[in-house]
């Protein structure tokens, strides 16, 4: 077993969990067990939170400029171990190595931005708000924060939060996905090597029990979550009930609107990446194409032709363009959605169920799958499939496309493909959706911008990354001063 | 060999430079030592630049499929035990093939910084090919 039984990282030490509940972690391309992950106990969560609470005072008093130096060291370590981290992501998640490299790059970008904390955390002031009285607003760290991470970006997502929280002077506890926990263990080895003071960063492996212990712990000030909508709602409600701040990025059903004037070559390439990149397991993945008017027939033909050529296989093979899905359970769920689509009257143009990968008989592979004749009320048009399944809806005009998108309960991402600035403006202005792509299939905000989301795709007010992150991880304190 | 992904192209380029460096190091033992060692050094530096591009150029939002690039089209047979003039001709052919590969790949890469790097590397190989051509045409 390549990675052994994973440990927790608490108070600057690697500690074996005392839990008897241990899960196997599989390589989705081979089904091989590559690690075992303990489902830690509430007592272990308490130890991590206590370590974080005890480290808080000294850490918050550490000047921001000094705190930023830890992130410069971390950045150098991340670069040094870049390829190993990317390969770990591919082995535990299945995504292709290029995507894993992109993920690690995105994690590093957040470290780079957070290293600018001496500027990012500056407050503001005004003189003479009344005669001889000045007013200052300072940003102060809050305490212990935690993150409940998803399986689909096991290296990157905790780094939407941890670098900002810690750079702001807070201390932190990460609960990685129990399905893909290895990358965070590797990253915490680097955090350890960067010599963050004991207790400033902590890692507790586990599942719902760990989440509940974090959400109800009196010393946890706030939680960041990325995952499904039902769990996001649960975390938001539970955190609020226990007086914590929460930012919960949840599910998605992202539409890709193609206007008749869109240049088909680059549009098809962008749609394929959006729908089938990371085997469709991205919250930004486009899963519905809304083909407007006459573009429908030629677009459909080119999409199917190009998707059929996508090479599916082990993500460590550089020539592979799409890896497996994360687990057998996910595979079965996706197959269930394909059955449902057929039952509800959609027509399969490309059937990924038949894909076989040579030398990998036990991998969780499913090829690109495209449905035609999809109607907005169908299950496959409304629910998040989180797999490489794309539905095509033929709509008569731009307004009809927007109506379909507005009726979807989610508001995570949507893209428009067009050569018209007018339609582009209408799209970004009218649509209630957090991340908008104009001729971009994956509207992924970089580290200096918030990862937005609306409707059932986000619960909270401040998002991850960017200025939102600094706001989320600080309190604003106003000081009004008069000297006699 | 179909080079259909960003990673496959970068891997091919790095392997190509590695093979070139090894060839030049071996060739340097049989003559034209300064020129061949310089070329070997250049190839090794390019591996570092390509590795950096692979790390920093990759953006998951634009990992679109790449078509029409076949690695087999740039293969050059090499024999580092050949005599001096034959070695120079092989090296010229190797560099011309590399220049063609980088130009063809640059036209297909969706990431601008990497496209520009490939254009620069193509120019470097073109210049190197010319130098080998000139060296091969020198009498004696």
Structure description:
The complex is a heterodimer of chains A (484) and B (140). Chain A is built from 16 helices and 22 strands. Chain A is α/β, with parallel strands linked by helices and 484 residues long. Chain A starts with 7 loop residues before the first strand and ends with a strand. Chain B is elongated, with a radius of gyration of 15 Å. Chain B is mainly α and 140 residues long. The model of chain B has no long low-confidence stretch (mean pLDDT 90). The chains are: A alpha/beta (484), B mainly alpha (140). Chains A and B meet through helix 4 and helix 10 of A and helix 1 and helix 2 of B.
Characteristic key phrases:
heterodimer, A: 484 residues, alpha/beta, 7-stranded mixed sheet, 22 strands, B: 140 residues, mainly alpha, 4 helices, elongated
Please outline the helices and strands:
The complex is a heterodimer of chains A (484) and B (140).
Chain A (H helix, E strand, L loop, with lengths): L7 E3 L2 E3 L6 E5 L6 E6 L3 H20 L2 H17 L1 H12 L3 H18 L2 H4 L3 E7 L2 E9 L2 E5 L13 H6 L3 E5 L6 H12 L7 E3 L4 H9 L3 E7 L2 H13 L3 E5 L4 E5 L5 H13 L9 E7 L3 H13 L19 H16 L3 E4 L18 E4 L6 H4 L6 E7 L2 H10 L2 E2 L1 E5 L3 H10 L4 E4 L15 E2 L2 E2 L6 H7 L1 E9 L2
Chain B lengths: L5 H23 L4 H24 L27 H23 L5 H26 L3
Q: How large is the share of residues in beta strands of chain A?
A: 15-25%
Number of strands of chain B: 0
Number of strands of chain A: 22
Cα shape of chain B: elongated
Which structural class should the secondary elements of chain A be placed in? alpha/beta
Helix content of chain A: 25-40%
Average pLDDT number of chain B: 90
Structure annotation, total helices of chain B: 4
Report the sheet with the most strands of chain A, covering strand number, pairing sense and barrel closure: 7 strands, mixed
- Rg on CA atoms of chain A, Å: 23 Å
Look at the structure and give the mean pLDDT of chain A: 97
The separation of the N and C termini of chain A measures 71 Å
Could you list the spans of chain B in which at least 5 consecutive residues all have pLDDT below 50?
none
- Structure classification of chain B: mainly alpha
Q: Give a quick account of the main beta sheet of chain B: strands, pairing sense, barrel closure.
A: none
User: How far apart are the termini of chain B?
Assistant: 39 Å
User: What is the 3D form of chain A?
Assistant: globular
Helix content of chain B: 55-70%
